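User: Hi! I have a protein structure encoded as tokens and I'd like to know what sequence might fold into it. I'm fairly new to this, so please keep things simple.
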């Protein structure tokens, strides 16, 4: 494939075409002359949910720790509603340690966001519905301490 999903009737609204979604055409030959007397078509879509994660910023806090901020964009590029789960797992350098209970997130997904327990992994979304062409944005903040002293356990 071309790594790009084209929904039914994307090219011409109301008229799905070959190469879009699950386009399928049937041909009925009633007089056995090799030519279809009737052609019919149907097109069904599937969800295509993808995500991108980017680093936003690291901001030093008054106590010397760092707030690491990430943005996660979840998009449904498909032509049908789908569901997704989203889990985040920090795997920092061994000199940068997440602060237990020091993570939180906000989201444009209805009803999601808040403080996160422990140091991960964190479930940010579970069975969240996302409509065709829709997106949700998650902003995750993880507080961490940097310890570069000899004997700190890091490299």
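Assistant: Happy to help. Inverse folding works backwards from shape to sequence: for each of the 155 positions I chose a residue that suits the local structure. Here it is:
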């Amino acid at each position: 494939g071309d790594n790009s999903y084209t929904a039914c009737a994307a090219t011409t609204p109301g008229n799905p075409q070959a190469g879009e979604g699950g386009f399928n055409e049937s041909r009925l030959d009633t007089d056995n002359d090799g030519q279809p007397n009737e052609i019919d078509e149907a097109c069904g879509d599937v969800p295509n949910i993808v995500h991108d994660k980017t680093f936003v910023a690291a901001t030093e806090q008054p106590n010397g720790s760092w707030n690491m901020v990430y943005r996660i964009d979840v998009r449904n590029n498909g032509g049908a509603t789908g569901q997704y789960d989203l889990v985040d797992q920090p795997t920092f350098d061994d000199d940068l340690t997440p602060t237990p209970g020091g993570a939180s997130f906000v989201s444009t997904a209805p009803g999601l966001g808040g403080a996160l327990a422990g140091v991960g992994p964190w479930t940010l979304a579970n069975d969240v519905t996302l409509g065709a062409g829709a997106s949700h944005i998650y902003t995750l903040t993880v507080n961490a301490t940097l310890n570069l002293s000899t004997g700190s356990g890091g490299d």
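A useful reference point when you look it over: The beta strands are 24-28, 38-42, 49-60, 66-76, 82-88, 96-107, 113-116, 122-130, 135-146. Feel free to ask if any position seems puzzling.
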